Amino acid sequence: MIAPNPFIAAQEGNIYDLRVWQEKNKYNVVGLNITDKEHNSAPLIYTAARFGRVEMVKYLVSEGVNLNVVQAHGSSALHAAAYYGHLEIVKLLVEAKIDVNIVNRYGTTARDEASDLVQNGEQWKQIVSYLSS
């Protein structure tokens, strides 16, 4: 069964289902920049980053999505990856040239998000170190 919408596909990391949605709805790169109005207007790239879906993030980057699009609170995919401790995605997004200086509604960058959570584990320390270099 195909995911009921592209956001579920992104959340689950199901590239096949996302491609089916692209073909069915004739999504091009602009179509992949859609946001989920039910969940703080989270873009697909944010959703994939939040849930740690490395291959989905790679796919969306390869499709040319806008990396710097933010959700309703001004947080980018980099904020999500940093907050949830997904170091590999942080590196992938930075290498893809995401803006590391985006400040969300709460006045924090992705690095700030990770800094607030270093007590939670080594990956947050590594994220802070990576984003500080």
Automatic annotation (TrEMBL):
Alphabetically ordered keywords of this record: ANK repeat
Electron transport among keywords: no
InterPro entries: Ankyrin_rpt, Ankyrin_rpt-contain_sf
A Pfam family this chain is assigned to: Ank_2
ANK repeats: 40-72, 73-105
Name of the molecule in the record: Uncharacterized protein
Alphabetized SUPFAM superfamilies for the sequence: Ankyrin repeat (SSF48403)
Originating species: Arcella intermedia
Keyword Transmembrane in annotation: no
Entries under PANTHER family matching the protein: REPEAT PROTEIN, PUTATIVE-RELATED, SURFACE ANTIGEN BSPA-LIKE-RELATED
Origin organism lineage: Eukaryota, Amoebozoa, Tubulinea, Elardia, Arcellinida
